[in-house]
Amino acid sequence: MKWTKLTLKTMSEAEELISNMLTDLGFEGIEIVDNVPITEEEKKAMFIDILPEVDEEDKTAAISFYLNEGEDVEETIAKIQEGLDELAEFVDVGSRKIMVSETEDVDWINNWKEFFKPFRVDDNIVIKPTWEPLNNVSNKDLIIEIDPGTAFGTGAHETTKLCISGLKKYVNSETKLLDVGCGSGILSIIGAKLGAFSVFGTDIDPNAVKAAYENAKVNHISDDVLTIISGDIICDESIQKQVGFECYDVVAANILADVIIPLSAEIGKHMKPGGVFISSGIINMKKEQVKEAILKNGFQILEINEMGDWVSIVAQK
């Protein structure tokens, strides 16, 4: 099925009023592209380290929306222009040019799956999508099946590979493992497969909890071994209590530098003396900031590993 897409050229100052007008006309799923930089608060909420460059002098914007099947394009454009006439009395609505195009009805949620193929993390860990067949493996290989769903984590990124390397080095049959920001559960599952006595995972996204439990089931990880909850361990006291204090031998946190820095002030409370903190997701330009925070919060750095532009810091309480 094809959809008719309309894109209105306007000004960023008019975005909110025009969006409200389009909503009143019955449009849903409005998309806005502009050059307004996001705030630090928004950046933290989005969990991103590097922002795209924008031309802050360019005050134009593009608002896209879609027609329902059977709607008349010319009639719809006329209604929108009438609405813009009214708004123009209060705000600069820009050129008001409306471009019309067609787009395929694509399953964006699942379309990425064709690019996720089985791959080898190292000499004996292989990660495969649950929907893909697997060839060229040996009896010595540790096979991890993953369907990330809408949660982050296929294992292919350098940051995850760095964490996996740390887990292989420090996890044993007596390990109580804490996975902060568990996403799809890949590190939790690998920790359990490596023989960890117990694994506790947290993630701020409730969808991650669902995905992680589903992936754990596929990989035959028992609920007796794995527990995952949704919440923020950094600032939520109820989550901190559920996680427990001074009880983990190894903590893995594959997140971002801006999260690891405040996490380093909290996570030591949940670790046994001598426990190991494996942090990853650190872009190399922020390595020194993370090192400083980890040292400041009472850890001794054991090793620093790098892959591409990414850094993993392994520290001991």
Automatic annotation (TrEMBL):
Catalytic activity reported: L-lysyl-[protein] + 3 S-adenosyl-L-methionine = N(6),N(6),N(6)-trimethyl-L-lysyl-[protein] + 3 S-adenosyl-L-homocysteine + 3 H(+)
CDD domains linked to this entry: AdoMet_MTases
EC number of the protein: 2.1.1.-
UniProt-annotated location(s): Cytoplasm
GO molecular function: protein-lysine N-methyltransferase activity
Ribonucleoprotein keyword on record: yes
UniProt family annotation: Belongs to the methyltransferase superfamily. PrmA family.
HAMAP family per the UniProt record, alphabetical: Methyltr_PrmA
Function: Methylates ribosomal protein L11.
Protein name: Ribosomal protein L11 methyltransferase
Species this protein is from: Anaerocolumna aminovalerica
